[in-house]
Each structure stands twice: as C-alpha cells, then as structure tokens.
Design brief:
Insect_cuticle; 1 helix; Cuticular protein; elongated; structural constituent of cuticle; alpha+beta; 25% helix
C-alpha cells in the first residue's frame, strides 16, 4: 500500500486504490469472457458409450385395451418387435358403428405394410 507523503494528496491515494480495483475488475471480466468462449467451443466427438451390446437382438412386446361403456370408447393395440421386424394390430370402434382392425408389419426389406378390415357391428 502506498504511503502518503507531503507531496501526495488524499485524492492521489484514492486514485491509486481505484486503479488497482479497476485492474482486478478488468482481469475478472476478461477471465469470465475467456471461460464463456471456451465453454461454447465444440467438443471433440469421441466414441459414445452404448448401453446395448451389439450382439443383442432388440425386442419388446406391449399391449393395452380400453372398453368404457359409459363413453363408448373401445379400442386396443398390441405390438411386438424382434430384431428389425415389428408386427402389430390395433382396433377401434368407429363413430359410424364399424369396428376397424388394422394389422401391420414393418421391416427393412419391405417397409411399412398394412391390412385394414372393417366389421359392421350396429
């Protein structure tokens, strides 16, 4: 810290202190700016860890059904996957009284394939 001498006034001392604080503020601001720029740079793309082993065959099964006489909502859906092939079926009571069933399958070779059948209930 600078000592006051007869040739220095209190105002000179305050300017020295203010100048030191200003340098600190500039350095902190500069550091924060550099940190912000570095954090926005693209990161190198490495190999991502996979949670599924490559030799596992993907598969799943699910189904649900709704039959609510109060609202008239009647529908169902089931689907099965084994490897790259998905098969499924969904049905719904349509507003015109028909019961529509859609059977489908999809795979890499043929894409999405569907068969629709309507049955008149009313």
């Amino acid at each position: 810290m600078q000592q006051l001498s007869p040739t220095h006034s209190r105002t000179d001392f305050e300017c020295v202190v203010s100048s030191a604080k200003m340098r600190q503020i500039v350095l902190v601001t500069l550091f924060a700016s550099v940190l912000a720029v570095v954090s926005c740079l693209p990161r190198p793309q490495g190999e991502e860890e996979q949670s599924v082993y490559q030799d596992e065959i993907p598969s799943y099964n699910y189904n649900y059904a709704v039959n609510d006489p109060l609202s008239g909502d009647t529908k169902s859906h089931s689907e099965h996957r084994y490897g790259d092939r998905v098969t499924g079926s969904y049905s719904q009571l349509m507003p015109d009284g028909k019961y529509r069933t859609v059977n489908y399958y999809a795979d890499d070779a043929t894409g999405y394939n569907v068969q629709i059948a309507d049955q008149q209930l009313i």
